[in-house]
Amino acid sequence: MSNTESTIPLKMLLFSFHATNTIILSFLPLYLQYKGLSGTEIGYVLAIGPLATIFAQPFWGYLSDKYKTIKRILVICIIGLLIFSVLFFQMNTLFTILLMGAVFYFFVTPIGALGDSLAQRRASELGTSFGTIRTWGSIGFATSSLVIGSILNNVGVQYMIWPYLFFGFIALLVAIRLKDVNVESDPVKFKDVEKLIKNKPFVIFLFLILFITIGHRANDSFIGLYVEQLGGNEALVGLAWFVGVASEAAVFFFAGYWFKKFHPLVFVIIAGILYSLRWFMYAVADDPSFVIALQFLHGLTFGIFYLAAFDYVSRLIPKLLQSTGHLVFFSVFFGVSGIIGSLMGGALIDSFGGGTLYTIMGGLAIVGTIFMTLYHVLPFGKTVAQESQ
């Protein structure tokens, strides 16, 4: 089997999982609004996913490292996705939506992280760029947002479960055909995990990225409602995500050409500056087409930030703990940030509107960028990364 052929199931998994992900990210807030929930209540539901992430990511990552398999954990999680998504979408009261949402997200949230961890390991095995494999996730996300946005605009957002299950079943079929990782080491033990907690640069870096990722996650949750506030519909929400993720796919695809030019922290800082500019421009938007036009900045912010942060974290953590370390990184990026972004965003968009929310997000990104620049200049920020390369 050639190298290209051996990565096809992995690329298809990333494509199909991120196609399901876009349906939840793009349209769940509108679905919950259809069910009669307020902006603040929608914030509660959207915070449940990140809350589950904080527990689910390290749990599944630890099992993956302990039993030296990503493939089997992925298959279990995708089966959980299919079963509990059906139950989640049956719920009608805030309490039952929150309860079943927690179980649903417990299985769903690790899939992206484990898929990326597997892609990163396969890329280093084959001597290829992680971005060229990961770009298939972005293509799946972009395709799904455009097509499903148009479909739901015609049939109604209440039917979003059907395309979700369709892509979920494809993800399961290709996950069964995945090539698993080869780890030449003893199984990971709990005391090994202490090494991550005692790794100061790792912990400080995770704290500092919060200032930038909170805004990113708040945008994930509320861009759909913001586009609607400005007079848009489901098709325009889908188009906004398509433009954003198409630019992200391009950034990932060409990563091999630009990524090694500077230290990853330089790219994190550049992305932080672009994030702050992006949010301030969104804040003054008075038409949904303005937000959609600016969505190309998603690739230059998230695309660059995520690749650089993921690469930097991979340098900071020992090989034995790669899955666990990656999932702890995901817990902070998508979990802690997601809880704060969803709760804060829901309350702000309810009380003051989207403009105020985006202004505050821009301010947070500036603070995070300043801290990250100081972290890069201080000696420990770089030395550990270079030593463990």
Automatic annotation (TrEMBL):
GO cellular component: plasma membrane
Protein's cellular compartments: Cell inner membrane
Alphabetical keyword list: Cell inner membrane, Cell membrane, Membrane, Transmembrane, Transmembrane helix, Transport
Major site of localization recorded for this protein: membrane
SUPFAM superfamilies assigned: MFS general substrate transporter
One GO MF term attached to the UniProt entry: lactose:proton symporter activity
Domain of life: Bacteria
Topology term for the membrane: Multi-pass membrane protein
PROSITE patterns: MFS (PS50850)
Ranges that cross the membrane: 12-32, 44-63, 70-89, 95-115, 136-155, 161-178, 199-218, 238-258, 265-284, 290-313, 325-349, 355-378
Claim: Membrane is one of the keywords in the record: yes
Domain Major facilitator superfamily (MFS) profile residues, every copy: 1-186, 196-389
PANTHER family linked to this entry: 3-PHENYLPROPIONIC ACID TRANSPORTER-RELATED, BLL5896 PROTEIN
NCBIfam families documented for this protein: mfs (NF037955)
Name of the featured protein: MFS transporter
Organism of this sequence: Ornithinibacillus caprae
